[in-house]
């Protein structure tokens, strides 16, 4: 009986996982969330401690940065769901399990740091934030790719880079050097995670080029951020896109394109049959996405021009 592809890939890729863990550990820097939070700005809230309740005037952040930080934090909050999902794909044994646990431990710092920053600086309503966290985690997380390993690796290759871009641009949009420093530190973690997955997928392309190409295409075409289940996500994502923090152009140019270029998917000569067909589908989709991104940019520029004209008048 032939060995299933996923089983064979798990065995063939384990040495790559071991190598990438060693590379990751040589580059990862230890850091501590509490060092990135301006604790001196904090004061008691209402409740058992009898402090002051939150008011909108407490926040020094603009609407765009505030909404983006909420989305970023609620996304990080669902880490238990991501841990389960990635463990279902990679397993809990050997080098695969070692990576799952290391990745989870590093990711956990992100939510800690962002929540402490938002609470101490009174940047958002802490009661509304906690209710949103409860709702989001009760909804849970189910990856669109299920337990398909190639799809899972392809997805996180893009998703980790997308998260890095979103964090860095949110920091810049915040207007707060402390916030920007914290999110830059978090983004550095996300970048290393992206490199791990990107290199792993590159190895899979060498072993099973056609099947891996199909997985990449399906993931790109169906891609959505893990925070898509957040209540009010569509409204928040529109605000974030209009602010240029994360939009279709960034997704096309700064996330999909560099990763696909690194894999050399459009230069490969080993694709046949469905693999070649998948690459054609990917090329067509990217062209459509590029056109949609251009249209969005044009409409955004028109809206901004109208807003500027109204203010000038």
From TrEMBL:
Cited InterPro entries: Fatty_acid_desaturase-2, Ferritin-like_SF, RNR-like
Organism superkingdom: Bacteria
The keyword Nucleus belongs to this UniProt entry's keyword annotation: no
Keyword Iron in annotation: yes
Cofactor(s) the protein needs: Fe(2+)
Keywords: Fatty acid biosynthesis, Fatty acid metabolism, Iron, Lipid biosynthesis, Lipid metabolism, Metal-binding, Oxidoreductase
Gene3D superfamilies noted in UniProt: Ribonucleotide Reductase, subunit A (1.10.620.20)
Entry similarity comment: Belongs to the fatty acid desaturase type 2 family.
Record's subunit section: Homodimer.
Protein name: Acyl-ACP desaturase
Protein species of origin: Actinomadura rugatobispora
Organism phylogeny: Bacteria, Bacillati, Actinomycetota, Actinomycetes, Streptosporangiales
């Amino acid at each position: 009986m032939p060995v299933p592809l996923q089983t064979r890939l798990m065995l063939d890729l384990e040495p790559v996982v071991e190598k990438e863990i060693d590379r990751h550990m040589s580059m990862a820097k230890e850091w501590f969330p509490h060092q990135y939070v301006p604790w001196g700005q904090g004061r008691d809230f209402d409740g058992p401690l009898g402090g002051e309740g939150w008011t909108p005037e407490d926040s020094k952040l603009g609407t765009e940065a505030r909404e983006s930080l909420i989305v970023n934090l609620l996304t990080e909050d669902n880490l238990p769901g991501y841990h389960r999902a990635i463990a279902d794909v990679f397993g809990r044994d050997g080098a695969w399990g070692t990576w799952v646990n290391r990745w989870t431990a590093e990711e956990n710092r992100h939510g800690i740091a962002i929540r402490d920053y938002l609470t101490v600086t009174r940047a958002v309503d802490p009661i509304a934030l906690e209710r949103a966290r409860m709702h989001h985690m009760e909804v849970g997380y189910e990856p669109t790719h299920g337990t398909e390993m190639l799809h899972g690796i392809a997805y996180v290759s893009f998703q980790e880079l997308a998260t890095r871009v979103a964090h860095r641009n949110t920091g810049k949009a915040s207007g707060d050097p402390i916030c920007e420093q914290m999110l830059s530190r978090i983004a550095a973690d996300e970048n290393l995670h992206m490199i791990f997955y990107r290199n792993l997928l590159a190895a899979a392309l060498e072993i099973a080029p056609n099947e891996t190409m199909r997985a990449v295409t399906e993931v790109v075409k169906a891609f959505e951020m893990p925070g898509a289940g957040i209540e009010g996500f569509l409204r928040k994502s529109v605000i974030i896109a209009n602010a240029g923090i994360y939009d279709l152009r960034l997704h096309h140019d700064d996330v999909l394109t560099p990763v696909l270029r690194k894999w050399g998917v459009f230069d490969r000569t080993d694709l046949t049959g469905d693999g070649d067909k998948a690459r054609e589908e990917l090329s067509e989709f990217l062209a459509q996405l590029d056109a949609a991104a251009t249209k969005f940019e044009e409409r955004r520029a028109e809206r901004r021009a109208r807003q500027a004209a109204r203010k000038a008048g």
